[in-house]
Structure formats: C-alpha cells, structure tokens
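Progress report, Aim 2. The chain analyzed during this reporting quarter is listed below.
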Amino acid sequence: MSTESVEGVDVAHVDAVLDARNAAAAVRLAGIIADAQLDTAGSPRKLPMDLFPEFPPEMVQAVWERALVVGVRAGQLMQSPRFYRDKLARLREELADAAYASMARSSDAVLSGPAAFPELHAIDDEEARGH
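Predicted structure tokens for the chain:
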C-alpha cells in the first residue's frame, strides 16, 4: 500500500501522528511501570531482585511480558467491573466449564460484589458505591 492519500486521507500524516502518540504513551507507561515497580518493591535497594539473576533471562522476560499483559487487563476490569458484567460472567463460566473451580469461585466474587452492581440509594437516588 502506498503512503499516498487513500479516500482523501493522508496516510503518511496519520501514520506519523499516531506513531508519535504511541511513542509518547509508551514513555508514560514505562514511567508508571517504574513507579509501580518501586512502590511494590518498597525500596530502591530491592529493585535488583526484579532481575531474578538465578533464572535464565529469556524465561524472566517471558514471565514479565505475560504478567504485564495480565496486570494491565486486570486493572481495566477492576476499574469498571459493572461495564464488563457480561464478559466477566462469560469468563467465570468458561473457568467453571473447564473445571477451574477455585478460579471460578474467585471470579464469582467480582460479579457478586457491590462495586459490580451499584444500586440506587433508596433515600437520595444516588448510586451506592459499595458503602
């Protein structure tokens, strides 16, 4: 595909702008990961433990990449479980159907919690936020 205009859109311009946005987002994401890493380690002197020198670097990288994807997705689902009710219910069912009973029970706790299904407060018609 050429970088010329497609249906009146300057593809090269769109590509450059979106690539720049992605790069800027990656820098911010790297910063928040660095902050979270230190926050969870507790002290800068504990950061070298995150290199896991006793394991092969390729294995550590593979685990790191998977954990990052899972952590980001968990954060998204945790932020607004009520918006993901159907998806969470489907995922819970898939876990249960595949005989992952413990994980299905844990998943069920998300669906049954007050944050997942806020109800109108009976007195002032405001959403109850789990309190």
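The chain has a mean pLDDT of 84. The CA atoms of residues 25 and 61 lie 21 Å apart. These observations will guide the mutagenesis work planned for the next reporting period.
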